[in-house]
Protein backbone atom coordinates (compact mmCIF):
# COMPACT_ATOMS: atom_id res chain seq x y z
CA UNK A 1 0.00 0.00 0.00
CA UNK A 2 1.25 3.48 -0.80
CA UNK A 3 0.20 7.10 -0.43
CA UNK A 4 0.64 9.16 -3.61
CA UNK A 5 0.50 12.96 -3.44
CA UNK A 6 -2.34 14.58 -5.32
CA UNK A 7 -1.42 15.34 -8.93
CA UNK A 8 -3.19 16.06 -12.22
CA UNK A 9 -3.58 12.35 -12.96
CA UNK A 10 -5.34 11.46 -9.70
CA UNK A 11 -7.12 14.73 -8.86
CA UNK A 12 -10.46 13.70 -10.41
CA UNK A 13 -10.40 10.46 -8.39
CA UNK A 14 -9.60 12.34 -5.16
CA UNK A 15 -12.40 14.84 -5.70
CA UNK A 16 -14.99 12.19 -6.70
CA UNK A 17 -14.16 10.04 -3.66
CA UNK A 18 -14.29 13.10 -1.40
CA UNK A 19 -17.76 14.00 -2.65
CA UNK A 20 -18.98 10.40 -2.41
CA UNK A 21 -17.60 9.73 1.07
CA UNK A 22 -18.36 12.92 2.99
CA UNK A 23 -21.69 14.70 3.50
CA UNK A 24 -21.85 18.14 1.95
CA UNK A 25 -22.02 19.85 5.35
CA UNK A 26 -18.68 18.27 6.34
CA UNK A 27 -16.82 19.09 3.13
CA UNK A 28 -14.77 22.18 2.47
CA UNK A 29 -14.65 23.55 -1.08
CA UNK A 30 -12.15 21.50 -3.09
CA UNK A 31 -10.42 24.67 -4.37
CA UNK A 32 -9.83 25.69 -0.74
CA UNK A 33 -8.23 22.30 -0.05
CA UNK A 34 -5.95 22.72 -3.06
CA UNK A 35 -4.92 26.23 -2.03
CA UNK A 36 -4.20 25.17 1.56
CA UNK A 37 -2.28 22.13 0.32
CA UNK A 38 -0.16 24.27 -1.99
CA UNK A 39 0.54 26.58 0.96
CA UNK A 40 1.85 23.57 2.90
CA UNK A 41 -0.91 23.52 5.53
CA UNK A 42 -1.66 19.86 4.80
CA UNK A 43 -1.17 17.10 2.25
CA UNK A 44 -3.69 15.41 -0.04
CA UNK A 45 -2.92 11.78 -0.87
CA UNK A 46 -4.50 9.08 -2.99
CA UNK A 47 -4.24 5.72 -1.26
CA UNK A 48 -3.19 2.96 -3.65
CA UNK A 49 -3.10 -0.81 -3.35
CA UNK A 50 -1.34 -2.73 -6.14
CA UNK A 51 -1.29 0.45 -8.29
CA UNK A 52 -5.07 0.83 -7.97
CA UNK A 53 -6.66 3.87 -6.33
CA UNK A 54 -8.62 2.72 -3.28
CA UNK A 55 -9.04 5.81 -1.09
CA UNK A 56 -8.07 9.32 -0.08
CA UNK A 57 -6.29 10.97 2.82
CA UNK A 58 -5.83 14.58 3.87
CA UNK A 59 -3.44 15.00 6.77
CA UNK A 60 -1.24 17.57 8.46
CA UNK A 61 1.89 17.03 10.52
CA UNK A 62 1.45 18.01 14.17
CA UNK A 63 5.06 17.33 15.13
CA UNK A 64 7.76 14.95 14.01
CA UNK A 65 6.17 11.51 14.03
CA UNK A 66 2.63 12.82 14.75
CA UNK A 67 -0.19 13.61 12.33
CA UNK A 68 -3.72 14.96 12.19
CA UNK A 69 -6.02 13.13 9.78
CA UNK A 70 -8.61 15.59 8.54
CA UNK A 71 -10.23 13.46 5.81
CA UNK A 72 -9.78 9.72 5.28
CA UNK A 73 -11.97 7.43 3.19
CA UNK A 74 -11.80 4.19 1.29
CA UNK A 75 -13.88 4.51 -1.89
CA UNK A 76 -17.20 2.70 -2.15
CA UNK A 77 -15.80 -0.01 -4.46
CA UNK A 78 -13.07 -1.07 -2.01
CA UNK A 79 -14.78 -0.98 1.39
CA UNK A 80 -15.04 -4.05 3.63
CA UNK A 81 -11.69 -5.41 2.43
CA UNK A 82 -9.72 -4.38 5.56
CA UNK A 83 -8.02 -1.61 3.57
CA UNK A 84 -9.07 1.03 6.11
CA UNK A 85 -7.53 -1.00 8.92
CA UNK A 86 -4.35 -1.37 6.87
CA UNK A 87 -4.19 2.41 6.33
CA UNK A 88 -4.61 3.10 10.05
CA UNK A 89 -1.91 0.55 10.91
CA UNK A 90 0.45 2.22 8.42
CA UNK A 91 -0.31 5.67 9.83
CA UNK A 92 0.33 4.47 13.39
CA UNK A 93 3.67 3.00 12.26
CA UNK A 94 4.65 6.09 10.27
CA UNK A 95 3.54 8.45 13.07
CA UNK A 96 4.28 6.57 16.33
CA UNK A 97 3.88 9.66 18.51
CA UNK A 98 0.31 10.10 17.42
CA UNK A 99 -2.51 9.83 14.95
CA UNK A 100 -5.21 12.37 15.75
CA UNK A 101 -8.59 12.35 14.00
CA UNK A 102 -12.25 13.13 14.50
CA UNK A 103 -15.35 10.97 14.23
CA UNK A 104 -18.90 12.30 14.07
CA UNK A 105 -20.66 12.54 17.42
CA UNK A 106 -22.69 9.45 18.23
CA UNK A 107 -25.73 9.06 20.45
CA UNK A 108 -27.62 12.00 18.97
CA UNK A 109 -30.13 10.00 16.87
CA UNK A 110 -28.74 11.51 13.68
CA UNK A 111 -30.21 10.44 10.36
CA UNK A 112 -27.00 8.47 9.74
CA UNK A 113 -26.58 7.27 13.35
CA UNK A 114 -25.83 3.66 12.35
CA UNK A 115 -23.09 4.82 9.97
CA UNK A 116 -21.62 7.10 12.65
CA UNK A 117 -21.55 4.29 15.20
CA UNK A 118 -19.96 1.90 12.70
CA UNK A 119 -17.20 4.43 11.90
CA UNK A 120 -16.59 5.20 15.59
CA UNK A 121 -16.36 1.47 16.40
CA UNK A 122 -14.01 0.97 13.43
CA UNK A 123 -11.58 3.55 14.83
CA UNK A 124 -11.77 2.10 18.34
CA UNK A 125 -11.26 -1.45 17.01
CA UNK A 126 -8.12 -0.19 15.26
CA UNK A 127 -6.67 1.41 18.38
CA UNK A 128 -7.68 5.01 17.68
CA UNK A 129 -9.50 5.78 20.92
CA UNK A 130 -11.91 8.43 22.12
CA UNK A 131 -10.01 11.06 24.12
CA UNK A 132 -13.07 12.19 26.05
CA UNK A 133 -13.08 15.52 24.18
CA UNK A 134 -15.51 16.88 21.61
CA UNK A 135 -14.88 19.52 18.98
CA UNK A 136 -17.49 21.69 17.29
CA UNK A 137 -16.54 23.31 14.00
CA UNK A 138 -18.91 24.88 11.47
CA UNK A 139 -21.85 23.73 13.62
CA UNK A 140 -20.82 20.05 13.49
CA UNK A 141 -19.69 18.08 16.55
CA UNK A 142 -17.07 15.33 16.50
CA UNK A 143 -15.35 13.02 18.98
CA UNK A 144 -11.61 13.70 19.14
CA UNK A 145 -9.82 10.36 18.78
CA UNK A 146 -6.15 9.52 19.20
CA UNK A 147 -3.61 6.70 19.02
CA UNK A 148 0.02 7.17 19.93
CA UNK A 149 2.89 6.70 22.30
CA UNK A 150 3.00 10.37 23.32
CA UNK A 151 -0.50 10.35 24.79
CA UNK A 152 -3.18 12.92 24.11
CA UNK A 153 -2.83 16.32 25.72
CA UNK A 154 -2.15 20.01 25.35
CA UNK A 155 -0.03 19.79 22.19
CA UNK A 156 -2.83 18.11 20.26
CA UNK A 157 -5.52 20.39 21.68
CA UNK A 158 -3.51 23.47 20.72
CA UNK A 159 -2.93 22.08 17.23
CA UNK A 160 -6.69 21.57 16.76
CA UNK A 161 -7.43 25.10 17.95
CA UNK A 162 -4.82 26.49 15.55
CA UNK A 163 -6.09 24.32 12.68
CA UNK A 164 -9.76 25.17 13.39
CA UNK A 165 -9.52 28.77 14.67
CA UNK A 166 -13.27 29.14 15.27
CA UNK A 167 -13.79 25.69 16.78
CA UNK A 168 -14.88 24.99 20.33
CA UNK A 169 -13.37 22.06 22.23
CA UNK A 170 -14.64 20.68 25.51
CA UNK A 171 -14.25 17.66 27.76
CA UNK A 172 -17.27 15.38 27.81
CA UNK A 173 -18.90 15.27 31.23
CA UNK A 174 -18.08 12.14 33.18
CA UNK A 175 -20.96 10.02 34.35
CA UNK A 176 -18.86 7.59 36.40
CA UNK A 177 -20.55 6.76 39.67
CA UNK A 178 -23.99 7.93 38.58
CA UNK A 179 -26.69 5.29 38.91
From TrEMBL:
Residues 1-141 form the N-acetyltransferase domain. SUPFAM superfamilies: Acyl-CoA N-acyltransferases (Nat). It comes from the Bacteria. Keywords: Transferase. GO terms for molecular function: acyltransferase activity, transferring groups other than amino-acyl groups. This is N-acetyltransferase.
Amino acid sequence: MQFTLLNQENQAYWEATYIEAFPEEERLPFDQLLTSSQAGKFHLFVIQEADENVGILLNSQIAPEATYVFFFAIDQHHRNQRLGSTVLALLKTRYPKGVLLESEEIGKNAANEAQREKRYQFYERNGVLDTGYLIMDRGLTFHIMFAGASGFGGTQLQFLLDFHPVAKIWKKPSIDGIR
